[in-house]
Known about the structure:
The protein contains one helix and four strands. The protein is an alpha+beta fold.
Amino acid sequence: MIVINYFSKNETELENLKMIDELKKAFGMTLKVGSRYLTLQNIEADTTDGVLQFKFDLNFFDGVETTKEEGYEAAGELKINLKE
């Protein structure tokens, strides 16, 4: 979980709301780290005693190992057609 604390100059709700919009714009739904893009999840914004807390979770896998099972061919081209 990432937590950003914002201390507004005048401790007003309007300043905090503007900052929430700016943080949402700055981060969007993904965060680029090196050559990877991590998806932000569970984005929340709370104000306690005039201090804004902007929170989100980052889930990622590092060092995922793969093995090739005998008797199976490696996957080739995969075509997916999603209809909404």
